[in-house]
Each structure stands twice: as C-alpha cells, then as structure tokens.
Amino acid sequence: MKKCSIVLLVLLFSLSAQAQDVFGQWKTIDDETGEAKSIVEVYEKDGKVYGKIIEIFNKDRRDLPCVKCEGDDYNQPILGLDIIKDMTKDGKYYKNGTVVDPQSGKVYDLRLAVTEDDTLQVRGYIGFFYSTQYWERIK
C-alpha cells in the first residue's frame, strides 16, 4: 500500500510539473478582437528558449514576409519566423529575451510564465510599460 501511494504521488507531481512547462504549442489570441491568430511553438535550443510561428489562421496573411522587421528577420516569411528569442529560466519566469511583433516590427523585452490554469502569460516590455497577452495551450 505504501509503495502504491508513493508511485501515485510521484506520478501526480510529474504530471503537474509537466503541465506548467512553457514548451509546446500555443494559440495566440488577438488583443482587440479576442480571435485566434496563430500557433506558436515554444522550444529549447542551445540552452535558450525560442518560439516560432508554425500556423497562421488568416489564409491571406500566411505567405507574407516580415517587411517591418529588422536585421536577419527583415523580409523573412512570417510563417516559420522565430518571434521569441533567447529566453532563459529565472525562477518561475522565463526572462532576458525578446519578442517581435511581425505586424509592426517592434521588438519588446519579454517575460513568459505559465499560469495556474495552464495558459501562457506573454508580457512584453518597453522600459516600465508593458502589455500582456494570454495564449492557450494546444493539447
């Protein structure tokens, strides 16, 4: 009986820890309309966290390049673009990286966290000012 309880506790702990992970696919939600815009896959590469657009729901925008982006992202297809870059884990948050808005080309400092209801809190900063979006996990 004791072994069964221990196994059950370990299983429950591992499932809850896994649910709080930023990695995976997330549905982005438009701030103004509340409609789903895209799917971003958050992944790890070389010890840092990145996120790339893997699906765009508006078929008229699927093949557009990022004409307002700068540097290496300029004129690259938005579909497949890494919009989240160089994040590192700092306690319960992922910080020290950036996110680019492909429509405006603006780059923001970024903080990511998974909320208790398993949504991704995406908070972009410029100085002390910030805006927060909540992305839904694709299960």
What is the topology?
Layout: H1 2-19, E1 24-29, E2 36-45, E3 48-56, E4 82-90, E5 93-100, E6 107-114, E7 119-126, E8 129-137
Antiparallel strand pairs: 1-2, 1-8, 2-3, 3-4, 4-5, 5-6, 6-7, 7-8
Domain DUF2147: 24-137
Keywords: Signal
Signal peptide: 1-19
Descriptive notes:
The chain has 139 residues and is mostly beta strands. 13% of the residues lie in helices and 48% in strands. An eight-stranded antiparallel β-barrel has the order 1-2-3-4-5-6-7-8. Strand 5 and strand 6 (107-114) form a beta hairpin.
The count of strands amounts to 8
Largest sheet: 8 strands, antiparallel, barrel
Q: In terms of structural class, how would the helical and strand content be classed? A: mainly beta
| Uncertain spans | 4-19
Strand content: over 45%
Keywords: Signal
Pfam families: DUF2147
Signal peptide: 1-19
Domain DUF2147: 24-137
